């Protein structure tokens, strides 16, 4: 990357995951006006978050299905993870995380002296939890099962058929469920088999995480939340939050407006994601040496490359010879090679030219 940039060579970046840099039209005046609320000039700390902001999450985002008293605000989904890890685990305890997944859990857990233990997602035309492997991963120090729903980067949702076994396993081993639902609004199609949220699960302690970063395409606004139905857990989370008081007043006061604007952004993002995935699928025929893995949602596509070279060699040669930047599967802890991960958030003309250059490497 440095060599190409220093030489002035063009780069087709198929890793773009920042919605604010992906060419979407934001209602700037409304966003900026919402952040100019004069009430932000007075400090009024609220450990769980301002009642008005929690009510906005409840009414606007969850359509009133989640009581505001179950919602605790954080500065981000990453911070929400750390709060839940602090609540559930002592140093040396374990949390079970899916593999493949976004390479964030190791860092977040390590900062709380918690150990990450992976469990596999199996792929057979669709992704699913390998429950046998998950059960084998549980030890006396296990404290929670993390779900990313839909997963990043596989785009796989939890299925209705999986929810019962998952709750049974968590109940048997006294484990909590942590459900990261930041991409749940981005299903590629309607499918009654998919579980969109675990906010109504009460059989075991359950923590559902989300935030403006993906919900409204506003990662810079730094507002996330935790939903739990466990009253004792909520009280203890509130104590943790009261220790930090990290959520800024301006974004909390703006939350009703920002959440109200989310559909406009989501429609743009979904249109881009669906169009790019459709183009990619159209370029791969039945005799192609490339394979596009099935996905149900999210912002990414996984392309299985011919195994004529390693993932690292694929990524470096595509960048050096073709000026196309993609991510290797090992960034996301894929168990085998060779997979390339492409962001469907990329501008369509950039994505299409990048895909043409990738597929031209092997026909």
Topology (SSEs and partners):
Blueprint: H1 2-7, E1 12-13, H2 28-34, H3 51-61, E2 71-74, H4 77-88, E3 94-99, H5 105-111, E4 115-123, E5 127-129, H6 131-137, E6 142-148, E7 158-159, H7 160-172, E8 176-180, E9 194-195, E10 206-211, H8 212-215, E11 224-228, H9 231-244, H10 249-260, H11 262-282, E12 291-292, E13 300-304, H12 311-322, E14 324-325, E15 327-328, E16 339-343, H13 348-359
Parallel strand pairs: 1-14, 3-4, 3-6, 6-8, 8-10
Antiparallel strand pairs: 2-11, 4-5, 7-9, 10-11, 12-13, 13-16, 15-16
Task: Give your account of this protein's structure.
The protein has 363 residues and is of the alpha/beta class. The chain folds into 2 domains: 2-25 and 263-359, Alpha-Beta Complex (Aspartate Aminotransferase, domain 1); 28-260, Aspartate Aminotransferase, domain 2 (3-Layer(aba) Sandwich), CATH 3.40.640. Helix content is 38%, strand content 18%. The chain is built from 13 helices and 16 strands. The chain has helices at residues 2-7, 28-34, 51-61, 77-88, 105-111, 131-137, 160-172, 212-215, 231-244, 249-260, 262-282, 311-322, 348-359, and strands spanning 12-13, 71-74, 94-99, 115-123, 127-129, 142-148, 158-159, 176-180, 194-195, 206-211, 224-228, 291-292, 300-304, 324-325, 327-328, 339-343. The protein has an 8-stranded mixed β-sheet with strand order 2-11-10-8-6-3-4-5, with helices on both faces. Strands 12-13-16-15 form a 4-stranded antiparallel β-sheet, covered by helices on one side. Strands 1-14 form a two-stranded parallel sheet. Strand 12 (291-292) and strand 13 (300-304) form a beta hairpin. Helix 3 runs parallel beside helix 10. The two termini are 26 Å apart.
């Amino acid at each position: 990357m440095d060599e190409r940039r220093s030489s002035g060579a063009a780069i087709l970046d198929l890793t773009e995951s920042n919605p604010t840099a992906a060419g979407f039209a934001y209602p700037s005046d409304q966003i900026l006006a919402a952040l100019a609320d004069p009430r932000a000039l007075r400090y009024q700390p609220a450990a769980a978050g301002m009642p008005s902001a929690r009510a906005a999450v409840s009414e606007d985002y969850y359509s009133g299905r989640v009581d505001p008293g179950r919602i605790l605000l954080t500065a981000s989904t990453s911070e929400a993870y750390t709060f839940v890890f602090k609540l559930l685990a002592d140093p040396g305890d374990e949390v079970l995380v899916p593999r493949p997944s976004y390479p964030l859990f190791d860092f977040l857990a390590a900062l709380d002296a918690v150990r990450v233990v992976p469990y596999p997602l199996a792929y057979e035309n669709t992704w699913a939890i390998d429950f046998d492997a998950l059960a084998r991963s549980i030890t006396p120090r296990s404290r929670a099962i993390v779900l990313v729903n839909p997963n990043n980067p596989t785009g796989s949702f939890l299925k209705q058929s999986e929810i019962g076994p998952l709750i049974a396993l968590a109940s048997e081993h006294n484990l909590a469920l942590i459900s990261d639902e930041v991409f749940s609004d981005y299903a590629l199609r309607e499918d009654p088999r998919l579980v969109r949220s675990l906010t109504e699960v009460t059989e075991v302690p359950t923590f559902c995480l989300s935030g403006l970063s993906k919900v409204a395409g506003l990662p810079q606004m730094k507002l996330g939340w935790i939903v739990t139905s466990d009253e004792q857990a909520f009280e203890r989370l509130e104590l943790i939050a009261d220790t930090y008081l990290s959520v800024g007043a301006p974004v909390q006061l703006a939350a009703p407006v920002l959440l109200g604007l989310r559909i406009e952004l989501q429609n743009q993002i979904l249109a881009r994601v669906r169009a790019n995935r459709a183009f990619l699928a159209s370029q791969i025929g039945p005799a192609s040496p490339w394979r596009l893995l099935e996905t149900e949602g999210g912002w990414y596509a996984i392309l299985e490359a011919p195994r004529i070279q390693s993932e690292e060699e694929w990524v470096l040669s595509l960048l050096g010879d073709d000026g196309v930047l993609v991510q290797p599967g090992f960034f996301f802890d894929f168990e085998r090679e060779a997979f390339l991960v492409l962001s469907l958030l990329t501008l369509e003309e950039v994505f299409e030219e990048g895909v043409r250059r990738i597929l031209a490497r092997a026909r």
